Amino acid sequence: MSQKPAASARPTSPDRAALRAERRRLREAIRAKPSLLRGRAAFEKADERRRFKASVSRDKANRAYQAALTAAERDKQQKQQNAATELRALDNDQQNSEARELRLLREQFIDNALRRAHLSVKELNGLGAGLIRDLATRGIRTAADFTGVSRGAAPNGKGGDVMWIHMASGHRVHINGIGEHRAKVLVEWRQSYVRRAEERAPKRITLADRQRIEEAAKQRRAELEARKASAEAVANEARTEAKRVLDAALARLAEADRAAGRAAAAQRTQYDVVAEELARLEEQLAAFNAAHSGLGFRRRSRDRPIPSATPTPTRVQGPPTREPLPRVRLNFYPPAPVDPEQPEPPLTRVSTRRPGLWWLIPVVWYLGSALTGTPVLIGAPPWVAVLLALGHLAVSAYILGHWIRRRRQWKTQEAATRMPKLALNMIWMWLIVVLSIATQYT
Fold first, then answer.
1. Is the pLDDT assigned to residue 179 strictly greater than 80?
2. Model's pTM, two decimal places?
3. Order of strands, edge to edge, in the sheet holding 161-167?
């Protein structure tokens, strides 16, 4: 009677080695994926900041457009108000134009009459030909060349007061030989010509002058109306230019936003592909562990954040915010003795709280002590002070370096390793060293 071969209860050595190699391959592939997904949170925040900056730029362009419209409207109203004010002033002033014109005509007539009145020996009693020549030499030839006389000090300050003749240009001259009597004769002669000219001057304007005044007022009114109408045209040009600038800015921002959006979508797709690949590998490893749980493989669980395959919701407006990624507890190892050929990596102690700001107190204190030379050691060798300063800097640098690394780790992964105990020990140990050295030289 033939005997059936017994079924093998466990795989042979080559099969066990192949299974171990497959398990190692899956674990190494899973360990490599999270490093690729670790930057997704920073990427989402950067993309959110980009969209926020784009919205701020659009709001800025719209505000600039509204400011340009307001300025154009303000300039238009100011120009139109100025033109309307001048129009009202022109209407009120037209009634006084005839009076001004008549006054100008009379002044012009009197001035012409005085210019025709030349100095002569016959009309000026007491002024000889020599004095008339001296007056002509100084620019006084007609009654229009001077306006009056006055008494004042002599040009050289000696000899008492003399008579000064006031010129039409505003200057005054002194003619030797013309005293108070002859100056009085000269003034009376001029006043007689002024009285005769005022009597013969026109008492009202002519029809031609009135028509000329009305024509000037009409021309001025047309200019003001044209200025008032041009204010609206200038405002329309300013509005058109502001609209063109706004459209160009919005088009430029939209094109940049579309390009950045395409790049972000491509990057997000890559993250999704990596996340799907990680999920597939984890399913394979879980199935592998379930199928070969009796092979003596050790099973160990640990908490590790797994980035979501779907992007986290972000806000379009407002400053960027931090949204933690979901955490999934994965069991990669079967509960079995440790395989001596494949040692397990040690676990890292992870804290969900970031290092507090109180760690900066000893950093600031030691840095300030190094800069100010605290404590002051009287009679100590120079190398002791240098050693204390270097120790202050070393302790503060060590604490600050660990604090910054863990704060950054918490910012990117929402979890960070705790500050080493050596940091707290160094703070107190170095403080004791400083106090012991200070007591020796105090």
1. yes
2. 0.38
3. 146-153, 161-167, 172-173
Mean pLDDT computed over 206-222: 77
Residue entry with tokens 């009085």: 184
What's the burial of 162, exposed, middle or buried (CB within 10 Å: 0-12/13-18/19+)? Answer: middle
Residue 251: CB partners within 8 Å, gap ≥ 6?
A: none
- The residue type of 320 is P
Q: What confidence tens digit (pLDDT) does each residue in 127-175 have?
A: 888 888 888 888 888 888 888 888 888 777 666 788 888 888 778 888 8
Distance CA 99, CA 210 (A): 11
106 vs 100, 163, 170, 200, 202, CA distance in Å? 10, 30, 22, 9, 6
Q: In the numeric block, which tokens belong to residue 26?
A: 């899956």
> In this predicted model, what pLDDT tens digit does every residue of 243-281 receive, in sequence order?
999 999 999 999 999 999 899 988 888 888 888 888 888
